[in-house]
Each structure stands twice: as C-alpha cells, then as structure tokens.
Amino acid sequence: MSQYPPFRNRSWLFAFLLLLSGPLFGQSPLIPTPLSRQYSVNQLRSDFRLMRRALEEAHPGLYRYHPRDSVSRWFDAAEVRLTHPMTELQFRRAVEPAIDRIGCGHTDLYGSKAYVKYRKKHPSKPFPVDVFVVDEKLYVRENRSNDTTVRRGSELLAVNGLSAGTLLNQFYQYISSDGYNQTFKPFVLNTGLFGSYYALAIGADSSAQRLTLRDSTGTVRTLTFRMPPGNLKASADSVEKRVIPASKPRKPKPGKPEQKEEETRTLTFSERDSTVAVLKVASFSGGGQRAFFRKSFKTIAARKTVTNLVVDVRGNLGGNSSAATRLVSYLVGKPFQAYAEVDAPVRQVSFNRHLGWKFWRFWLRNFFTHKTSEGTFRRTGVTGLIKPTTKNAFRGKVFVLTNGGTFSAGSIFTSLTKHNAPDRVTVVGRETGGGEYGCNAFTSPYMTLPETGVQLRFPLYKIVLAIPGIDKGHGVLPDVPVLYTAPAILSVKDLDMEKVYELVKK
Predict the structure, then answer these.
(1) What is the CB-side half-sphere exposure of residue 319 using CA atoms within 13 A?
(2) What is the mean pLDDT of residues 369-395?
C-alpha cells in the first residue's frame, strides 16, 4: 500500500507528465530557453554598470565625436529603461542605442554564446522577401514567398503597419558606424541582413507578416504571408552585425561562407581598355597578402600598356592594417607616415577577467607599448616613416573604388593613398564607412557581461592618421561621387567602373 494519499500521488504524476508533454502540445516548457529566460533588474543593472564602467575607463574614443556630458546622458537614459525583468534580447534593445551613438564602428553588442547557439538550432522564421535600401527607401531584391505576384523592384512601404522609414530608424540604432557616417548602415542591410535585423529589432517569430508593397505601375497592395517553419535563412544572431571583422581574423560566421583567397584578392586586365588594370582587394584579412601584392605589381609592370590602375576596395571591411599600408607603399612615390598615434588610455584594465584575448593583450601591453608624455600608452614602432616600394611600383593614374562597406583598414588604405598621392589618385564611388582620420581598433577583444552573457566588442586603441586637416567625423569622401538607383542595382550594373572608363577616356 502506498504511503502517500492517492490524490497527492496522482497530482505529482500529472505535473511530471505535463512537464514532458509541454513541447509536444506546443506549450512553453517550464525550463526557460536563452530566448525566454528573464533577468532581474539587479542583474541587468549590474551588467550595464560594468559595461559603462569599462567604456568610461578604457574605451579610447568614447569622447572622440561627442562631449562627455552627452555620452553620460545617453548612458543614464539607457539605465533608466532597466526597470523590470527582461530577456537578453530585450536588454540589448534597451541599451544598444546608447552604444551606437558613441560613433565607433568597432564597438557593438552581440548575443551571448548560449543565445547564438540556441538560435542556430531554432532559427527565427524566414522573412518572405529579401530587401535592399536606396535613398532611405526599401525595395524587393528577391521574392522568397510562394506568391508569384510579388515582383523584384517593388517598393516595400511597410511591414505589419510599420513604415519603411520607421523600420530603418529602428535598425540603424543597432548598427554602429564611425563618427557621423551614414553609408555603412545601409551597406550592412544590403548584404542580405534585412530579415535578420527585423528579427533583432522587432521580432520575427510570429506566424504571419503583412507587407505593403507598391509595384512598378504604382499599385499598392497589402499581402499577408504565412511563415513556414524551417531554416531558409540563418537566424538573427547567427549573422547579425557580424559583417564587421575583428582586428584579428575570426572564424567564419554561421550563415556566411568563408571567402576563398582567390575571391578576396584578384588582378585582372580590362578587355575594354588595354590601359586599365583592376586590382580587387575585398579584404585585408588572411595570409599571403605580401606575396599577392608583389606578384600583382610585377605582372602589371610587365604590361607596358597599363597606365591606369583601379584598386577596388568596395566592401573591404578591413583586417590587417600592415597589409593596407603595404599596398599604399606601391602607389605613393615618397616616404609617408601612416599614424600620428595609436594610443590606449590605460595599460591594464580593471575588468581584465571579463575581457578576452588575455595572452595577446599581456604581451602587447608589456612588450609593445610605451607611455607617452600625455599619459596614454602607445603601440611601439607605429608612427615612423614608411618607405615606398620601389621595385615594380605603380606610378600611373590610380582610381580607388569605395562604398559604405569600405571600413577600418579598407578606409585607412583609401585615406592614406589619397592624401599621399593627391595628384595621381582619384576616389570614385560613395563615402567610406570607416573614418577618414582613423578609427578605434588595432586590437578589439570581446568583453563578456557576467550576468546575461552578452558580449561587448571593445577596441583598445585610438588610431589617428598622420594626414593634414581636421577630423569632421566622416569617411573618405569620393572625388567623383557615383549614385545608384534601384533599377541599376537590380540589373547589377557597375556604375563605378563605367565612371572610371569615362574618366580614362577624358
């Protein structure tokens, strides 16, 4: 005979079966997931205050573009929003706009490891269309739904009642860029991440999406799309904002195939004009770059007809800055100084146990850093003159192609080349996403907040380029601007190269 009363015994059994059957019947399990787990106000504020203290103590460019009182006011406003328990994603939505306003493209928040791992296995529902941005308007690039009446090039006016302008304003709060630059943000969205940012900023786990579209005839329709389950596209946190590479090469991001070396760096000769060679450098990350440059310029020198060189750094998000300055040395005819300063405000941070790359940072601060008269800590050997490469150097006309994705080392290359050979170098395209006078980077480890596990990307050095003028908080502006329309993007026209051929012909 049982020692427990029958009713109590059955209640325990019923509760146990309910716990097991919850997921089977579509009910929320009792064990919270990284998406549903809520953190207390004390936990949220503890993480936020640690993050704020770290930024105020050691971020090299926290007040580079905005005064201290403005930054403090943004932080205060973010903490005021932490008044009730939140999930990790809600916490990030509450505080990330303050991070974005700093004006540092190397400073950003990322999901915790547990959150990213969960999202890989349980991706958010796919967005019915792929969208791109032109002049602050949204257009359909690819129809992923079963409704064949949705045409490429249709303007997306609203999603679930939120206008395109409202959506862009929301998304831009989660994309950090250098200074006051506004070309980097749409570039990020145009890499196929519109649906990911929608999931990050708004949420995309509902069973349907209502899209208001205007087609080429001017007809406006609102269509409802039922979202099928499945993994059509990677989830928000498996690809979100990871288009920005770290100062050191990182592992390929989920949902983003690793670029092969032959895709990131190529040399071709124009069949249209025998005087034109095209050197495409899509990234300064990875090995073999010195050998590639050496071989490429040797090949160019052997072609006596080549008098015009196009260096395509569109979408070059950076990487190894020494590779960027190496390429500059082939194009300028005199010694040049790359950096006026590469300085950290402190040698040792008080939050060291929460910050990654400990071994690398130990060697860096103890053996490759010296204290300046201003009290900062400068990377050793970075402010000296760099000699131009003389063997097989190119001394003809140079056209540098840029866009909002020309960032970090890509922007450093553009700025140094333009300022050190202004009579021969013409920048064609759009304003670079990276700053003309430098950025905050060189070493950018990740800081893990102990309560939520949210990661903060944290640059340690302020880079100031040794070029004349005043930093106005923008990227390198093109000498010859080229604007794209929606039809040009859909037809995959290279208007930048067309402009180069036009300039060469003149």
Answers:
(1) 22
(2) 95
Q: Tokens 């590479």 map to which residue? A: 245
CA–CA gap between residue 438 and residue 320 (Å, rounded): 14
Residue 420, phi then psi, degrees to nearest 5: -100, -5
- The secondary structure element, H or E, covering residue 233 is none
Question: Comparing C-alpha atoms, which of 462, 453, 408 is closest to residue 435?
Answer: 408
DSSP string, 179-229: TT--SHHHHHIIIIIHHHHHHHHT---SSEEEEEEE-TT--EEEEEEE--S
Query: Would you mind telling me the total number of residues written for the chain in this entry?
Result: 506
pLDDT of 133: 96
Cα 497 from chain centroid?
Answer: 25
Report CA-CA distances (Å) from 22 to 27, 31, 33.
5, 10, 14
First to last CA, the chain: 102
Give every CB contact of residue 456 below 8 A, 6+ residues apart in sequence: 51, 54, 99, 107, 108, 109, 110, 446, 447, 449
Q: What is the mean pLDDT of the chain?
A: 88
Contact between 433 and 407 (Cβ < 8 Å): yes
Q: Distance between CA 220 and CA 140 in Å, rounded?
A: 14
**For residue range 279-305, what is the model confidence (pLDDT) as tens digits?**
999 999 999 999 999 999 999 999 999
Residues 6+ apart with CB under 8 A from 327: 281, 293, 311, 413
Contact 170, 154 (CB under 8 A): no
